[in-house]
Amino acid sequence: MEYRKILELEFREFSREVLEKSWEWLNDPQMRALTSTPDFDRESQEKWFENLKNRKDYFIRSIWHKDKPIAVMGIKHLTGKDGEVFGYIGEKEYWGKTVGIQGLEFMVNYAKSLNLESLYATVLKENINSYKLNRRLGFEKEKDIDENTILMRLYLSTLE
């Protein structure tokens, strides 16, 4: 895919430092709304983090710019066939600066390395930027999940 990389990004393990930043990011009302994040507390977040190392159905990376964590991207509900891609750019000054494109492209390449058939995304209809990002990388609307949410899918076998 052709695009101008505005920032040089680094993909790293999802660490405790990023867990702490995610607490801030996902408790921001705008971020919570755009990502459909349910209420959570420190205890449930800690339990989720501790279980990550044992999960085979979850792949998550933090995205860094100049030694600063700025975003998170991953694939959950991984099966041998598909998985659900997700992500959020926590540092709002990085919105619109190709972080989403680079992150989603990283996840697509990872999914291809696992020989998955497809990736899917659950996208809020009001989150136009997320919809456009997924479309840009080849995701197509598959169905309406409900009045607020759509399911988009990318078949990896159709990619070069």
Walk me through this protein's architecture:
The protein has 160 residues and is α+β, with helices and mostly antiparallel strands. Helices cover 33% and strands 30% of the residues. The chain has five helices and seven strands, in the order E-H-H-H-E-E-E-H-E-H-E-E. A seven-stranded mixed beta sheet has the order 1-2-3-4-5-7-6, sandwiched between helices. The longest helix has 15 residues. It starts with 9 loop residues before the first strand and ends in a 5-residue tail after the last strand. The mean pLDDT is 93.
Strand order of the largest sheet: 1-2-3-4-5-7-6
Q: Which class do the helix and strand fractions yield?
A: alpha+beta
User: How would you state the average pLDDT, rounded?
Assistant: 93
Major sheet description? 7 strands, mixed
Instruction: Give the radius of gyration.
Output: 15 Å
SSE pattern: EHHHEEEHEHEE
Shape field:
globular
Q: Would you count the extended β strands for me?
A: 7
Helix-strand layout with pairing:
Elements: E1 10-13, H1 16-26, H2 29-35, H3 42-52, E2 58-65, E3 68-76, E4 82-89, H4 99-113, E5 118-124, H5 128-136, E6 140-144, E7 149-155
Parallel strand pairs: 4-5
Antiparallel strand pairs: 1-2, 2-3, 3-4, 5-7, 6-7
Can you tag this structure with a few keywords?
single chain; 160 residues; alpha+beta; seven-stranded mixed β-sheet; 30% strand
Short description:
This protein is α+β, with helices and mostly antiparallel strands and 160 residues long. It has helices spanning 16-26, 29-35, 42-52, 99-113, 128-136; strands at 10-13, 58-65, 68-76, 82-89, 118-124, 140-144, 149-155.
